[in-house]
Amino acid sequence: MAIPLLSGLMNTLRRAAGALPGLARRLRPWLAALSKKQWLLAVAALPVLLLLYVLLLIPLTPSIGDIQKNKVEAPTQLLSADGKVLAQYKRANREWVALKDISPNVINALIATEDHRFYEHGALDWRRTFGSVLHTAMGRPQGGSTITQQLARNMFPEEIGRARSLNRKLKEAVTAYKIESAYTKDEILETYLNTVPFLYNAFGIEMAARTYFDKPAQKLSVLEAATLVGMLKGTSYYNPVQNPERAQQRRNTVLAQMNKHGKLSDQDFETLKKRGIKLDFERQDEAVGMAPHFAQALRKWLIEWADANDYNIYADGLVVQTTIDSRVQQWANQAVVRQGRQLQVTANGLWSNRNQWTAKNPLVQSFVRESAVYRQAVADGQDKDEALQRLLADADFMANLRQDKVRVQVGFMAMDPRNAHVLAWVGSRDFAIDPFDHVSQARRQPGSTFKPFVYGAALQDGALPTDQLMDEAVRIPLGGGQFWRPTDGGPPSDQPMTLADGLAYSKNTITAQVMAKVGPAKVAKLARALGVRDSKLEDVLSLALGTSPVTLQEMVTAYSTLANGGGYRAPVMVTRITDREGKVLAEFEPPAPEVALDSGVTYALIDMMRGVITKGTGRGVARYGVSGDWVGKTGTTQDNADGWFMLAHPDWVGGAWVGFNDSRVQLNDYWGQGAHSALPVVAEVAAASQRAKLVQAQARFEMPAENNTFVQRLRSWMLGFGDNKQPVDPFEQPPAMQELPDRGNPGDAPIIDDPEARPIGQGGAGPRGPSGEGDYPVFQNNPSPAQQPQMPAQRLADPSQPQPGVVVPGASSNPAPSNPAPASASPAPAFPGSASAPQGQPAGNPPPIERGVVVSPVSSGTVGQPVPTADGGMVWRRATPSGTAAPQSGNAGIAASEVN
Predict the structure, then answer these.
(1) Which segments show compositional bias classed as Gly residues (predicted)?
(2) What are the start-end ranges of the E strands in 525-676?
């Protein structure tokens, strides 16, 4: 017996030396030359060396203080401003239960199987340890870790490690002794059972009992307890869900150990071991709270603060008081879910198997090619076309792909402009399905919600809201033979229009002229000062129409700056941090505001934005009971990819974005507009806040005393703003198709009216253009062939068709008549929050529309100039392509990357 033991020890030494290759190479000749006597001396010296090494490991293993802190580990709590729990920061999905609340069957099964002398030893069971060494030396490896040693591994996996090595076993033993000095035996059992993992994101015996048997740990039977304890040897290998036969064999081993150590009678053992495993399996999702995206956004900052102040957010029981108002947050959650569900009905109809979601649709084929399943199939050697056709014919795959691509997404954020407190934050319809945050992470084109920054820059330069520009076709040279011709959903009135009305009615023709006068650099500078500080803003003319992607958080912050009189404050999320005993560790006051925009200029811009709510594209908020002094702006981007709405009050600012994660998926031309998709979300929350007196109805934006209109009028005159003509209502004429007046570009095509570029509720909706507000520029055919924008094949299959332009309803290849009849209009639904289609249209299907080909965005370093006329006036030209209308297509548009 001694010879095999000595041989085993020598082999162990050789394996240990082999673990250090460099040292082994140097020691191997010396070891080979040792005599038997020298070997015996080396073996005798081994315990001394081992003891010295253990002494060296003591300061390198977790300290008693770390163990005691881990013993009372408590997660950080996130509280709302009114004291409601928003979230908890935990290391894992577990619920701690006291030992007395755990079934005795679990404790008996655990001790009998894992460590039957648990209450007799102190950290290490030497009899079992030497037995394990003996069996291992003889080629029959056997575990010898006690429950305390296993707990050491579970509590400090990084410090101790998982490798099968002597070094790990020694660290484990040292830490186990430290644990025994800090915990009682019952506390060790309780901690062990609450920290051990059981797969499926279930940590601890309580979550395991709920996951596998849908009951609390206190009610586990002998069979159920034996099944869970049996998993501890190898949770995946003995997983009762995936491997029921193995799990049953292991369970019976646990029952045998219980019988052997007197915890189960012979009769019960014989009866129970014959029974199968009966599960009631259900994954236990971790509770996310009412503001999960907010908690996720705050986590990174809080970890940095805790590290800098020597705290642990997962263990120290911090209490973080946030600025979230639980009432506003709940209203926002409800509004997002309600509007998202209603819009999803429309999206499902538009992208059904009978409409756009077909195997022949090039866009659907692109979705398949971009999928991970397709890429893996090609990587495995399958032919690309065969892989594509196989997946297109796979009903389950296509259904899952459609559900992923056509899921409507919504983001919402609200702030108090007086102190920059974040009141509500909703990053998606469902955090469990859509953890991506559409408030702070998603960057999308803001469309016309960016226009107030253009007019703000003009006011900074001395313009007045009453200054007038001609509402007519605009032609702005970009250089290189290209021109920027922004259009609206309806024809220009060819009448002077005030800047205030240009903003209220979201007129691209007016906004483009203002941008050309002010310059994109000043607009971008103002937007950054107001709060758009993280996203890159291109200093190009098309920035006026919101072509640079930004986040919803940035837009709400910028509008909050305007509502605060031009004083910028970064959003405030936390007001106080305390420990678990209530001791204040830190307090955070709102920062002093930075002057982003002069208060007088800010008030003039706010006054202009009132028109958006009282008569313009945001008029629909009144239907939700929103009353008082509110300002705002709608926004819709190309092909209805993004719908926006921003709303501001002296006490409250909110904004919403609606769209899809893939911007190639869109809603129709009615529900895709910001006034119909995003406005209901913001208006519903604003109205609820007003009813709860969180927003004071009598509060108004006040004009600052130092506002000097004379100076502004002087600067306006010097800069060339203004016109003596009287302004007219741009929607005084019926929304009929009209030919543009002949201004030297014969063959100009007519354009069509758009519902969002007019006050909501004023007349019918009329035929619809390619976007909600006509926010996209149109190119004319002056550039050389090398400069001509390239059209993607799936958008215009027929290269003989005209490129950019607009379409007349019912137009064929023949030129449009000079005096077409007025277009018929379908009235908008009485309640914009409902999901029913406009009157006369089947639910879930878009109304009949005609699309033109539009371009977005346009970039050029050249600012366009007005074209002088014979009478010395300033006329902004616009030309449209002549000839035939573009084909009716849901993929109208040229991407920015396609413009040379």
Answers:
(1) 761-772
(2) 567-568, 574-578, 584-587, 594-595, 631-636, 642-649, 652-659
Q: Count of alpha carbons within 13 Å of 428, Cβ hemisphere only?
A: 19
Query: From residue 546, how far is each of 458, 527, 541, 773, 856 by CA, in Å?
Result: 16, 11, 10, 12, 10
**Residue among 790, 771, 767 at smallest CA distance from 849:** 767
* Coil vs helix vs strand at 621: helix
Instruction: Please provide residue 746's backbone torsions phi and psi, each rounded to the nearest 5 degrees.
Output: -65, 150
At residue 44's C-alpha, the angle toward residues 40 and 49, to 5°, is 130
778's enclosing H/E stretch is strand 777-778
Amino acid identity for residue 515 in this structure: M
**Starting at the edge strand that comes first in sequence, how are the strands of the sheet with 482-486 ordered?**
476-479, 482-486, 777-778
Task: Report the C-alpha gap between 84 and 79 in whole angstroms.
Answer: 5
Rg (CA), the chain: 36
Please classify residue 655 by burial: count the beta carbons closer than 10 Å to its beta carbon, then call 0-12 exposed, 13-18 middle and 19+ buried: buried
- Whether the pLDDT of residue 106 is over 60: the answer is yes
Residue type, 219: K
**Of 858, 767, 848, 754, nearest in space to 808 by CA:** 767
HEC per residue, 452-517: HHHHHHHHHCCCCCCCEEEECCCCEEEECCEEEEECCCCCCCCEEEEHHHHHHCCCHHHHHHHHHH
Phi (first) and psi of residue 871, to 5 degrees: -90, 10
Whether residue 492 is preceded by a cis peptide bond, meaning omega within 30 degrees of 0, is no
Q: How far is CA 280 from CA 103, 294, 495, in A?
A: 18, 34, 73
**Which tokens in the block code for residue 782?**
């002056």
Instruction: Tell me how far apart the alpha carbons of residues 672 and 668 are, in angstroms, rounded to a whole number.
Output: 5
Q: Contact, 453 vs 561, CB < 8 A?
A: no
Q: How many of the other CB atoms lie within 10 Å of CB of 703?
A: 13
- The DSSP code sequence of 176-233 is HHHHHHHS-HHHHHHHHHHH-B-STT-BHHHHHHHHHHSS-GGG--HHHHHHHHHHTT
For 294-311, what is the HEC assignment? HHHHHHHHHHHHHHHCCC
Beta bridge partners of 658: 410, 643
Contact 825, 761 (CB under 8 A): no
Mean pLDDT for the chain overall: 76
pLDDT band at 180 (very low <50, low <70, confident <90, very high): confident
**For residue 415, which phi and psi values (nearest 5 degrees)?**
-135, 160
Whether 259 and 269 have beta carbons less than 8 Å apart is answered as: yes
pLDDT at 887: 31
Q: Going by DSSP bridges, is the β-strand pair 319-322/76-79 parallel, antiparallel, or unpaired?
A: parallel
Q: What does DSSP assign to residue 259?
A: H
The per-residue pLDDT for range 444-453, each reduced to its tens digit, is 999 999 999 9
Would you state the structure tokens that stand for residue 480, as one six-digit string? 């290189």
In the prediction, which pLDDT does 629 show? Answer: 96
What string of H, E and C letters represents the secondary structure of 727-774?
Answer: CCCCCCCCCCCECCCCCCCCCCCCECCCHHHCCCCCCCCCCCCCCCCC
Beta strands in 505-664 (DSSP E): 567-568, 574-578, 584-587, 594-595, 631-636, 642-649, 652-659
SS (H, E, C) 115-143: CCCCCCCECECHHHHHHHHHHHHCCCCCC
Dihedral sign of CA atoms 181, 182, 187, 190 in order: negative
pLDDT at residue 870 greater than cutoff 80:
no
Q: Report the alpha-carbon distance of residue 641 to residue 665 in Å, rounded.
A: 7
Element (H, E) at 423: strand 421-426
pLDDT digits over 493-518, tens only? 899 999 999 999 999 999 999 999 99
Can you read off the two tokens belonging to residue 185? 């035996």
What's the predicted TM-score (pTM) here? 0.68
